[in-house]
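Service request form, structural biology core

Requester: graduate student, group of Dr. S.
Request type: structure prediction, single chain
Budget code: on file
Notes: please return the result as structure tokens.

Sequence provided:
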Amino acid sequence: MLKNFFRSLSSAQAGFLVKLSGCILAVFFVCGLLSPWIAPYGLEDMDLMSRLVAPFTSLAHPLGTDELGRDVLSRLLYSLRLSFILAVTGTLLGAVLGTALGFLAARFGGIVDDLVNTGIDFTASLPFIILALTILAFLGTDVTVIIVIMAVYGWDRYARLTRNLARSAYTEGYAAALEGLGIPTRRIMLGHILPNIASALVVNMTLNFPGMILLETSLSFLGVGVQPPMSSLGTMLGFGRDYLTTAWWIAVIPGVVIVISTLSMSILGDWVQQRLEPQNR
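Core staff response, request fulfilled:
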């Protein structure tokens, strides 16, 4: 639906939307990375005399405070930092894992191909949130475990894509010809096949990033993701749900940031996909 809407816009409107999305994401990334230096308060700084201050009513707390008197703006900046770090790390690890397995399946075939395809089908058929909750129940809610879960979440898309494109390279014959010349398989994969499929992988990464943000948000909202004293966008959203009627800003502000960031990344992903399509190049 978003892709159809994006393509229905004129070139000027689409260009403005892409630039706006890029600016928003750049601001979010920079603010998140610089949060230890630009946040007006620490992550856990409390002022019980300033509990539940409404946003835009105090210069000391522009976005208000939560139930413990903690500054919402400061917590939002720190939460952006952690959520984006988790999403970027999970996306990169998933891309590396899926691409490597896709190359192995395409190169060796046989039982290796069958095992990779079985893993792809298993991951695609199982509701992933159930699998994530099961893993967290057994291994705990450590940040490392969450990163591994986020990497597993996206690997099957990269594996399927890489396997199909790499098999096409062998079918076309140039990969087999290079092997006949004595060039090592690793060099063929990384030096010849990977550059040809890199654009498709980049598109997949940009389209998969919003899902990573939403996965982390869902797990933290359910209480099995990022744990205090750390804070993420999902953690803020989860803590604020009990105050929707009395202090709506605790949950609404991080919720709006989640919607804007995922929507902006989806727009950029559609734009990248459109730009890298062969008929548009």
